[in-house]
Amino acid sequence: MSARYFRSFVFILLAILVSSSAFSSILLKPKGSDSFRLLAKSVIGNVEICQQVATTDLNLVFHNESQQRMEADFIYTVPPGSVVTHFAYWYGNEKVVARVVEKERAAQIYQHITSRMRDPALIELVGKNLFRARIFPIMPNADLKIEIIYAQTLQSDKDGVTYKLLLSDTCENSNALSQIDINVRIRADRNIVGVSNNIGIPVARDEKGWKVAFSGQNYRPQKDMTVRMKSKRKTLRTNLYAARSGGSDGFFTLAVTPDHSLISPKIHITGVQTYSVFPSILPNIKADRALVIYGRYKGSGNSTVTLVGSSPDGKLTYRDSIFFGSKSEANNPATKLWAAKQIEELSKNKKNQYAVIKLSTRYTIPSAFTSWLAIPQEERKRYAQEMKQAEVSVLAKRLAYLIVNGKEYTAQAKAMKDKYLSLCKSTGRNSKYELESSTFREYWSLYNQLIDMIATGRSGSVQAQEIERLLHNVAKNRRYLQSKYFGNVLEDKVRDVATQLAAEQLSEKPNAQHIKSLQKQLVRLDRKIKKDTTQIKIRAKKAYITSQQDKIFYQATVEINDSRGDQKRIDQLRAKLRDLDSHYQSLDYTQAYDEYIRNSMGDHKRIDQLRAKMRDLNSHYQGPEYAQEYDEYFEWTLEYDVIVRKYQNAYNSNSIDTNELRKQLEKHNKSRKPSWEKFRYRGGDPLISIEAPVDAQQVIALMPDGEVKPLLYNTSSGKWEAQFDIPAYAKESTYTVQVIIVLKDGTRKVVKITYSVDITPPNGIASAKMVNTDGSILRLELEADPDTARVAVILPWQKRVEMKPSDTPNKFFTTVPVPKDYADNSFAVTFILTDNAHNRTSVTVDTSAEKAQ
Amino acid sequence: MIPRLWVLGCLALICSCTQVKATDIYTSTRQITSLASTSDGSLWAATRGGILQRKPDGTWCKFTRMDGLPSNEIIGITIDNDIVTVISPEATARFIKGRWCVDTGPPKQISKADNTQTASAVWLGRECVATLTELRIKEKDKWRNVALPPGRGSHISALLPRGDHLWSAMFGDGIWDYSGKSWSRLDIALPRAAREITCMVDTGSSIWVGTRREGLWQYVGKRWIQALMPDEPYDHNCQSMITYNGDLYVSTLEDGLVVKTSKGWIRYSDTALSLNAPRQMVIFGNCLYVRHGNGKVDRFDGSTWFRDICANLPRKQASALTSDGSRLYVAQWGGWSEFDGRSWKHNLKVPELQGYAITALMPGKDQLWIGTQGRGLAELDTITGKLTWYDESNGMPDDWIKVIAQSGNLHAGTFVGGLATWNGTKWSAAKELSGMEITALAPDTTGKGMFIGTRNGLFHMQDNADIMPVSSFTGSEVQALQLTDRELWIGTRTGIYMMPLLSKD
């Protein structure tokens, strides 16, 4: 047989529904938009046909030839009127059989397990005859083995009944199944006069019936397999499958095929009592086409079926004798077919959901409200354990609630505690710790309620008193609930209310009533806290102002640095900033700043004083790094503003050449940028950060080596960002990164940014001089290269001193007291110069040389 | 029972034998930089993780540094008289008679008109150059500028002449067809994953597309088939490594975590993590803590990720993590916080530390070693609270501490000063590592030896004194080390290596 493979996958579900009109089809598609092939390797089918009912058991093996682990949707369309009764897949050597679970719960469990990269399968009824099994994970280059069983009533015509097994549609041109093994067994039946098939396989006959079997390797099915069961010609042909399924009453499937078309047919069965028969209203029957009914029966034995209906020739009545057996066959197809019909009928009304779930669970048939879930044993155990652990937390929480609400010694609490302890024991959880933590949280929540009541003036209410009593009682014998752990709750509340107050006061439209209410809250809290909370309130307000300042400052920075920045917007932001500044410190600062900008010759000393104050405040509240960055940025913008103002004046008056000022501006821009725009390529994480609209379609950076880096929008910073690294082999140079922004409307914008690789250490000329004649003070000076960031001095008495930058650019100085032991001797002093890229140089000078000079 | 390892012997082997070769290398070939084909129908793909060759019979060969390439990072490939030449940032190599021959001299440069050029091709005898903003076609000594097609594509990242049509890959969008007059989007059902195209080639039998992170895609019979190599991590630019629950967790520069499990490599991205840039990992209380480049910390309990668990710390951003088993230490600006599993204790008001970035922490018996950026190393006596600084005045070669480890003596790796060792009374700098950036330290089980990762290669210290380079890694940018009972994992910028240790058994 020529090699060929068995493959099927279709991209969209619609295609599946359209193409699979009559017979089963198998479709595997990985979840997501991009599909991969999963090749069928082998098919093993066992078919049992009894009367007009067939049960098909298929074992299918697929191969994931891609190199990706994937979640796949196994989509299976069964023939109309069929019921899928069993689904299993193999996890390693374990056959994992699907069980029916309520749909929502099944989805939750599946989600829970797959989120941990585990291996369940979720099988759902997604259409009338359409099943979807979601399987995860299918490992790269691995096999997926699936077993599916479905029962169906076969279609008939005037000469007999036909069974069809779909093979060809699921096979593609150039590959073959490595293994195929099909066995069709037809039980002995008085109506059947002969059995044949369309692929020329010999039919074996024995006392049990007929058998059609074939197997092969590297087999490429040319067509679907059909097995034809020829029947005797009769005016009415009846095929009854009836059996018990464990209980006293049985299930039956009855197919009646009259030789005339009938309108408004009716069926009566006498001799055996039948009930729960579907459909309740029979459809019209075409000549030589089967009408199938499904039902239950009591007792057993011979009975008569009477079919009555109108035909063009008048009213017709058919009779035939049938036999209801007493034999019990567990999970026989009649049971499943009947249950499926019952579920179908009940599902028409949503009110029957509970009944449908019950039936679905009992007969293991998925429905609109249930799914199948197949979970490997190992994972089932783990899941059960986790559920137990979750129950421990829930119980601890409930128990804590009872404890805090004074119901610790009730029967309910006692029973709950016993269960809780037993669960803790079986799951290995620390019962004491869990319970204490939960009690702490409940206590905390109640305590916060009380504080809310105090703040809002309800401390005298019955409810507040009750809460206070409960809190007191529960904390009595519990050290972990004692007040020292709650000392800051009131302060936190003060902070919280003070922040709300600041926000309201500084909002564009302050609500006087709300302000009043918040102020009252603070008074009440002060009364309760019994200590001065002024500092807490000031800090809260300042923190709020600082956060707002940061936000506005950032917006202003963006606008200022954008060549197309909106001047009006910048002015608005500056005004806001000034407004906040005035709240934060004093109006003096803002006035001095404005004055300086206006005249370009403001009071330097005053500005420096205010700047120092601001630096201190920022350092205190925000930390030294922030203070330094803020200060640097302030200095930079101040200088920038001054130059811009001069430039504007010059431009407007035409009095002097503006080129020089423009050069100054460019130089200024290059010389120093706000620190948060620097690439700190040797210290932290190098980051490309670009201001672009959040709805931009795409932002990418083209790196100097040609690599493309898509930038992602960072909601915290409001920028598009990407990490990058600089390889050790990068040469010392300035590199350009080109950023392309594709805006929502399709417009493309190119922005260039640069970073430098600097591996040259700074250099400098140092001096060390005794400035006191008694040799007790040493003055150290150093003139360094412009990019020198800091200088430290190592003194021979194992002391390290940081030098200060002098007013003269690139100069550093410091004075140090000299220990007595060194005062009369000359010694070496080492200066360590470090630049912004952390390149370092050491320069050593001897004090004797200085003395000699 | 795990066999005891003959570590001493192994280390001796490593130190004395300069030809020690790591047995396993893991690189990702998902990032395709260039494609070419030879006359026999072979496809050659240059990637950031080596070279891929697809032979005419459909089988794949992968070449890395272990196979003679000058680097795993290949940025260009050219075919001249059927000789394959590959270009790495530092050298060029040719494939001759099944072997890679590295050329002496500077690496060949990839020809480019200027740095705004993103792709080029010769189409119908005309020179075509794609720039950031347009397509330029040279017609009779004059350049004709063609506006880029509409859509979400950022720029033309590859060009492929197809008869009288020119196919242009618009990065992030797909492939467009240029007829000479107008653009039209090609109706070829290009999968979404294959739209970040970096290069294209036509081998005669099919068209191949190389992507930024999704490897190679073949267009054959009107279908796209992805070709990914087996047993590869998603990315290999390793920043740190740790073994947790028997799996190796590797943090990458910008692709989240890749994990080597018994079933193969898996990946956790920012759908589970706070950021795709994890930088440091530590285990505490059976949980894995991951610090990211933005200072956020995530926790993984083996089944679930908890994001940004340090959001409520006073100074928000974590700059280093460590644990002594009983506590988790989270370094922040000017101090650190300690977590005992139930509550936090903050140490952010130590006056001497204010204003300094804390880069590394190492708890000792009665002290805590604190590495800083710009102030050297501090020793805090946890009983008396006394803090002692160690800097250049005590013999430290640099005041920026990158990593601290104890192996007999205490060692501090610095940013530009190499390794400093404390013998209890004074610090001394290792001459062999002078001026180097120390990125990782992995003390071995002898108590006197240690593997040292640097941006210049891997070294091994023996008996707390002799430092020898591990020659297989000379010049490699080692960024992380993880020593297990059986092997040493070496994480570099361009690959993840596993060097087995010899077992006594």
Question: Can you summarize this structure?
Answer:
Chain A is an alpha+beta fold and 853 residues long.
Helix content of chain B: under 10%
The count of strands of chain A amounts to 42
Number of helices of chain B: 1
In round numbers, the mean pLDDT of chain A is 78
Beta-strand proportion of chain B: over 45%
Structural class of chain A: alpha+beta
Largest interface: A-B, 67 and 71 residues
Could you give the distance between the termini of chain A? 104 Å
Distance between the termini of chain B: 12 Å
Unreliable segments of chain B (pLDDT under 50, ≥5 consecutive)? 1-22
User: In percent, how helical is the residue content of chain A?
Assistant: 25-40%
Shape of chain B: elongated
Mean pLDDT of chain B: 88
Please provide a written account of the structure:
The complex is a heterodimer of chains A (853) and B (505). Helix content of chain A is 35%, strand content 34%. Chain A is built from 18 helices and 42 strands. In chain A, strands 1, 3, 4, 6, 7, 11, 14, 15, 17 and 18 form a 10-stranded mixed sheet that branches. Chain A has a 6-stranded antiparallel sheet with strand order 2-5-10-9-27-8. In chain A, strand 41 (828-835) and strand 42 (840-846) form a beta hairpin. The longest helix of chain A is centred in the C-terminal third of the chain and has 30 residues, at 624-653. The radius of gyration of chain A is 43 Å and the shape is elongated. With 505 residues, chain B is mainly β. Chain B has a domain at 1-26 and 430-505. In chain B, strand 30 and strand 31 (328-332) form a beta hairpin. The longest helix of chain B is centred in the N-terminal third of the chain and has 10 residues, at 7-16. The interface between A and B is large, with 67 and 71 residues.
